[in-house]
Write a structure and sequence with these properties.
Elements lengths: L1 E8 L5 H11 L4 E5 L4 E5 L4 H11 L5 E9 L9 E3 L21 H8 L42 H8 L21 E2 L2 E2 H13 L9
Parallel strand pairs: 2-5
Antiparallel strand pairs: 1-3, 1-4, 2-3, 6-7
Length: 212
């Protein structure tokens, strides 16, 4: 087995689900996980070259790999598939690069406007391609428990999308919806009513202060 360590902008940009999907396609056994400094990938040594070639060709658009280290991995695996494991601390206590916040993508914007969508009028809708990153993070590795979303437990629906490898929100840390996510408050109003009341005040020429 080999350990591939990727450095750069490799957290908060959909790398773990991307690596998982690629490993499934190549029928690999192993795992991937975040550290404070990088993204680790464990896979069969004889598959290393083909995996890296595919990774470089299909890399998520927001990811930036600046350095790759390949080393032997001699610990035994107690499973025969490919998995995303819990993050671990890096022995050198280095820090990975933190991605910037991203404006809403077309797909998420469509969901916000779709009355039949669970994300209808949900201002904090996000996926692997968009949403807050830098402003949410309190510490590395990039995991939900290290972000401002830690108090917001995923509802059953969001948990199902998080666990579904075919979903665009698979293993994305910043997801939420109206049932389990952030609540907009303005005066005595919440969410949709808060936005409407805020818009009315702006139209009246009032100045609105945002706090988050």
């Amino acid at each position: 087995m080999n350990q591939i360590t990727l450095f750069g902008v490799v957290q908060g940009v959909g790398m773990r689900p991307f690596v998982y999907t690629l490993a499934q396609k190549l029928e690999l056994v192993g795992f991937t996980r975040n550290t404070q400094a990088a993204l680790e990938i464990i896979l069969p040594a004889h598959k290393t070259e083909s995996f890296l070639n595919a990774l470089k060709k299909e890399l998520p658009p927001l990811a930036l790999v600046e350095k790759i280290i390949i080393s032997p991995y001699d610990k035994a695996l107690h499973f025969n598939d490919f998995r995303i494991l819990e993050s671990k601390n890096h022995p050198l206590n280095l820090l990975s690069q933190i991605p910037k916040d991203l404006g809403v993508c077309k797909d998420c914007l469509h969901e916000i406007r779709d009355k039949n969508s669970p994300y209808f009028h949900y201002a904090f809708n996000s996926c692997a391609k968009c949403g807050a990153r830098y402003s949410l993070l309190n510490a590395l590795p990039y995991d939900r428990e290290n972000s401002a979303l830690k108090p917001f437990k995923l509802c059953e629906f969001c948990a199902s999308t998080y666990q579904d490898p075919t979903n665009k929100r698979f293993h994305i840390q910043g997801i939420s919806c109206k049932k389990c996510g952030i609540v907009l408050n303005y005066k005595r109003f919440k969410n949709d009513d808060a936005l409407l009341e805020c818009a009315k005040d702006i139209q009246k020429g009032k100045i609105i202060a945002l706090k988050g």
